[in-house]
Amino acid sequence: xxxxxxxxxxxxxxxxxxxxxxxxxxxxxxxxxxxxLKKAPEKHRARASFVGRIVGVESNTWLVEDHYTYxxxxxxxxxxxxxxxxxxxxxxxxxxxxxxxxxxxxxxIAHMPDDERRGVIVHVRQRQTRLFRxxxxxxxxxxxxxxxxxxxxxxxxxxxxxxxxxxxRHLIAAEQGGVEPVIVFNKIDxxxxxxxxxxxxxxxxxxxxxxxxxxxIRGDGISELRALMRGVTSILIGxxxxxKSALVNACFGISLQQVRAISRKYERxxxxxxxxxxxxxxxxxxxxxxxxxxxxxxxxxxxxELAFYFHDFDEYSPECKYQPCTHTHEPNCAVRAxxxxxxxxxxxxxxxxxxxxxx
Length: 359
Hints:
The protein is of the alpha/beta class and 359 residues long. The protein is built from eight helices and 17 strands. A six-stranded mixed beta sheet has the order 14-13-12-15-17-16, with helices on both faces.
């Protein structure tokens, strides 16, 4: 159902309409975040003169590449054709409680009368996939990127420290959004500690998740990474300092993104990339680079649903005496028994408990 949206700070107004579907009158409910309501979304969308894809954002301006140019061969990786604003009313085919716009969205745009390069976004088309989290300090759903097919979850083997819980959050978010995950262990030139080598083997062999070991400095794994990016829209996601921008530069062979050394005092990354951007790959496909995110709070997930995203629990969960089972305190829990036998690593189970507590 199409929703009327304005800017997030505007008061929402509930409206009810009716529509005739196959001869029957059906009541419809929509939410309008504007004081200027329009009864027919089709008339509002008719203002649009072309379709484009959001490839970046700068302040309050959305960088858009029109549909025709987007599907042509590209000599340069980043080539927005229009600078767009949201203007007044914006309709959307997406949910009311998530970001109105995100890099990767397909949008319908009306030209500015005085400048062909500028436009006003009037409608946001339905997202096929989305990578999202809960906004820091808020309870809204922040869409990091839309309509991406593959997510490269970048983690460093050292500097900054590897966080298993953050990796598990990334995997859950990818599955929630319908995005295929690939785990990238970067900075292998620093040496891979034995405990991380065990983690790599477990996620690859037991969970069946593709793994890439990379080094932007030495070039390890870059050709494999490029092959996985070919022909799809993919995204790099990870904490600050794990080397996402350095990997982007290595994949393109030019300096596209600024990189900075991590803080030696705190042994964690400094924010360098400030906004997400979508780049065109020479071999075909697109890549979205994102700012580093130290916090990744899961959204749209109830505590009782969490275990369904830990697929190493799947074999044992049906054997638990009590259903549903939280795998925390219930007697005769088959998952806890598997952890005690060492079949499921304790670190993996501990990650489950910590995420469950946060929910």
